[in-house]
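Worked example

This section walks through a single chain of length 317. The input is the sequence exactly as stored; nothing has been trimmed or padded.
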Amino acid sequence: MVDIVKYESNYKSLWDGFVRRSKNGSFLFHRDYMEYHSDQFLDSSLLFFENGNLVSIMPANVAGDIFYSHSGLTFGGIVSDRKMKIGVMLELFDSLMTYLSQHRIQTLVYKAVPHIYHVLPAEEDLYALFRYNAKLIKRDVSSAILFDEPIPFRKGRKWSIKQGKKYGLTIKQTNDFEAFMSIEEAVLTSKYDVKPTHTPSEIESLAQKFPENIKLFAAYKDEIMLAGVVIYENKTVVHTQYIASSDTGKKMGATELLLDYLITQYSSGQKYFDFGISTEKGGAYLNRGLVAYKEGFGARAIAYDAYEVGVTISESL
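Given that input, the structure is written out below as tokens.
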């Protein structure tokens, strides 16, 4: 039998330690990352124990009668270690559905961890979702490079890289998140009339807490930042959390030169280079120009899926 305990601060060390040794976890699941926006979500994260041993965790929040895994994260369903097996996962889901029913939850919205973030095969949860008649409600499309089988860059990307070299642009790692986020905000405001997910102070604070995972690289001309990329390093994936360039940077090929540098740098230490999603409205709209740009670097499609499961509430509760 799998027992469920709601997360409290006294479990922080146990939680973070489990994330570090998990087979499908990310530093995004560490409490110091999750809690930077704790004021926006009612945290309802869970720990799962079998015979007193922690076997899984689940980053989660509640809004009304809906249980999300987790609204503040791109993904994050059941996180488990290499001991997890199908039978235990089915028992875990049985306990989870009973727990949700007892708490008058009517719907579970589950965002599975994409397989490229798995250190070992970890799709026991997908089978359990199938057994509970889960419905696919969202499929975003990301674009990733598999370093073991690289696809050559398109001519347009190669030309832009040559432009960057011709203009004598330099690339370096920096902590000037304020300068970069001002470029990012200008791009998002002009193109989409939205602001970045993080403020400059938030992303800088997170980078200070996770210096091995969150890094900013930028392209410069005469010490002026023209483009930047905020990198999220995971166990198997390096992910571009933000990519932005000034108008001058675009003309000089700053972004392409920077991405070429990063792809080369990480090719020997990671398995995938993930550019992030190019879809909106739960996957119903594909930004063809954006995805074509990423595919120009040899990236190909990875699905980021979300499922919905109805919870049966017993009348006796």
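What to look for: Residues 86-102 form the longest helix (17 residues).
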